[in-house]
Amino acid sequence: MKFHHFKNNDAMPLLGLGTWKSGPGEVYQAVRTAIELGYRHFDCAFVYDNEAEIGEALAESIAAGKVKREDLWITSKLWNNSHPCELVLPALKQTLSDLQLDYLDLYLIHWPISLRKDVIYPNQASEYIPLGEIPLTETWAALEECYDLGLVRHLGVSNFSVKKLGEILSKSRLQPEVNQIEMHPFLQQPKMMEFCRENYIHLTAYSPLGSKDRAESMKGKNEPSLLEHPTILQIAARNQCSPAQVLIKWAMERGTSVIPKSVNPRRMKENLESIQVNISAKDMQEIAALDQHFRYLDGTFWTRGGSPYTLENIWDGEA
Length: 319
Ligand code: A2P
Prior knowledge:
Strand content: 5-15%
Strand order of the largest sheet: 3-4-5-6-9-10-11-12
Bound molecules: adenosine-2'-5'-diphosphate
Largest sheet: 8 strands, parallel
Order of helices and strands: EEEHEHEHEEEHEHEHEHHEHHH
Radius of gyration: 19 Å
Helix content: 25-40%
């Protein structure tokens, strides 16, 4: 396994198991199997509504001697309805309790979007808290307190633009160490990569396979398919591996971590074995030519029903 080494020498496995969309009744077994297969990095979030089931799988794997807590890397994320300072610690404690852990390796602000306390997914304007009413730097300061309490070892953000990262960097005591964003050959984000390299921020690529199991309401018309793109298929054939393995190895070759989701033992194994796949410099060049600034998760779902959020103020005009 390849790792990203943080300043304090903690090592995050570059390949983790995504758990968004891993449903009740399937995620327990997926995590148990993943640990048996050798996965040590699990990407979780309160809003995935499955942390309690993941927690059972982690606890039972540890109790059965399959893995030690210190050899696991567990990420979770603060949901949009817990941005006010006083809600951050309770939200983290809920996640820790569900995951049956006494600390997280990494805790992220899930989106730069704020919602009213009892809202999980908003339906109307009144359920949003307008941009700027709770500055992201205030939420960040509450995360720093969680770090001081020893409840999280690293702090980061998700879905943040370079501009929003810059605001946190300029006004905070602790730097964000990770930005988790959508990244794949259709959305390569070279400017974000450069900014993060310069500022020692590690990038995690989500939706590396195109998240085709998203709800239909989250899909656009005529979305391009990563797993069926002719260039990806050719590179897979050339290297005697699967298209998914090409996409996963591509992400790791760029130094990013990557969290493909699967609940299927065969595909989980296949994805883990991406580590051994060879991708040549020529393959990387061919994939570089596929960038089309295309987001599968373009944030449109945050702009409906009189929302104060727009695609412009979410992404700040960045590709
Ligand atoms: P499944 O969970 O049944 O394996 P993403 O990580 O981009 O969100 O993509 C997740 C989707 O990709 C899920 O539908 C998942 O299905 C599927 N998937 C995961 N691994 C592979 C693979 N190796 N080949 C094809 N599809 C895969």
